[in-house]
Design goal:
The chain has 279 residues and is an alpha/beta fold. It is 34% helix and 14% strand.
């Protein structure tokens, strides 16, 4: 994939530092610098990977300037707007941390809470952690009832297929052991990653945790981008990735997992022979 990669050499970097933060961004020139500066202060940080999804405002220039100023920041620019999932795929491919988390660039999620989200992984209890906006109510802006209903409906339908008791699969905060997300074969687009990732981690039978997070949502006037069609597409993606994709089609290699609480999840890393279905 053609890109503009502004990453810099780091002669003293650790080989296995804990946390990579992937920041997909599209036309967020007003908030990107604020988000990145907050990320620079979080514990366990190894790198911030900002992936610009073909922005038409000053976002790319701001990202490039931040990358030039801070050695922890890597900057990748997609040649055209391809959707959030495309930006995430590019970011995951570049990541090197033991833990990888997604951070939106619009300030709907507070980077100060990342430490809470990744703690179950650091403690060795979890392989994947979702930050739930509904598990226990923290600070949450009151916005669209239909969005709330859509989120609850999609989570409920996903739970039927995965047999997981999740409360918020559409959350922006998803943290993974690095070997899990880097081996995942991701084929959806736009906002399909949320459903696809949930279906595929469920196939691993690993330890998945949720922790409560705050949510400072935006209105459409303030720049919210998800649309009705994304919810409709998600309704199809739930059965698609749960019923028609097996474990071998979901991961390039089965990740080697080492959580304390379920020794059955420790598996040798083997190549998956089944190829992903063509789009």
């Amino acid at each position: 994939m053609p890109s503009e990669n502004r990453s810099k050499a780091r002669p003293n970097e650790e080989a296995h530092a804990p946390l990579s933060v992937v920041v997909p961004v599209f036309n967020e020139e007003k908030t990107l610098a604020v988000v990145v500066n907050k990320l620079l202060a979080i514990p366990h940080l190894f790198e911030i990977i900002v992936v610009d999804d073909g922005s038409t405002d000053g976002t790319a220039q701001i990202a490039a300037a931040l990358s030039a100023q801070h050695p922890q920041i890597r900057f990748e620019r997609l040649p055209k707007n391809s959707g959030k999932t495309a930006a995430l795929i590019a970011g995951f491919r570049l990541s090197r941390g033991d833990i990888v988390i997604v951070q939106d660039a619009d300030l709907e999620y507070d980077p100060d809470e990342i430490a809470d989200v990744i703690q179950p992984i650091l403690d060795g209890h979890a392989d994947v952690v979702y930050g739930s906006r509904f598990l226990v109510r923290r600070a949450a802006r009151v916005l669209y009832f239909y969005h709330f209903l859509a989120n609850k409906t999609l989570t409920f339908l996903s739970n039927i297929f995965t047999n997981l008791n999740m409360t918020d699969i559409e959350t922006g905060y998803k943290a993974f052991r690095g070997e899990i997300i880097r081996n995942m074969i991701i084929v959806s687009d736009r906002f399909g990653f949320e459903v696809e990732a949930t279906a595929k981690v469920a196939k691993l039978k690993i330890a998945i945790y949720e922790v409560p997070i705050s949510y400072y949502g935006r209105t459409y006037h303030e720049g919210k981008k998800i649309e009705l069609r994304d919810g409709l597409i998600a309704l199809w993606l739930i059965p698609r990735f749960n019923l028609f994709w097996n474990l071998g089609q979901s991961f390039r290699e089965i990740p080697q997992l080492t959580t304390k609480n379920d020794p059955k999840t420790v598996a040798a890393s083997v190549e998956c022979r089944a190829l992903a279905p063509e789009e």
